[in-house]
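Question:
Write out your own:
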Amino acid sequence: MPSQNSKREENFRIILEQTSEGVITTDVDGKITFANKAAATILGYADPGALIGMPMVDRYPHLENRELLIQELKSKGQIPDHETTLKKKDGALVEVLGHVAVKNDDNGNFTGSIGLFSDITERKRIEEELRLQSEVTSHLSEGIYLIRASDVA
C-alpha cells in the first residue's frame, strides 16, 4: 500500500508533467538541476534531461538583465511576474513571464532557485501590432481635410 508521501510525490510529479508552465530549479552555482517537459519545449529541447547540468546563464541573451535579476532575487527572496527574454536551443529568443524564488536549506542558506515561466512571445507580438495600429490610427486624422463643394468649383 502506497504511503501518504509517495502519493503526494506522485501528485506533484503529475502536476509538473502536465502543466504548461516551464519549471526549472538551479543549484547554488546556477546550474539546472531539474526541468519539466514544458520548460524543455519552451526552450526548444525535446528532452528535459538535456537541460540538466547546463548553466542557466547560457539561456540569458542579455547578461546585464540576469545580473539585475539575481540582485533583486537575493534581496527580496522572490521576483513575481517579471518579463524577460531567454535563448532557445537554436539561438532564437523567447519572451517569457516568470516567477523566481530562492531555495534555502533548513538553516536559511541559499541553495539555488526555482523558476516558473510561460512563453509570452505571441502575446508580445500581438501587443506590438496593436500598438502600431493605434499609432497609425491616431495619425490618420492628420491627413484628412474638409473640403466644401464651393472650394472645388
Observations:
- The beta strands are 22-27, 32-35, 78-87, 93-104, 110-119.
- The chain has a mean pLDDT of 88.
- The first helix runs from residue 4 to 18.
- The radius of gyration is 23 Å.
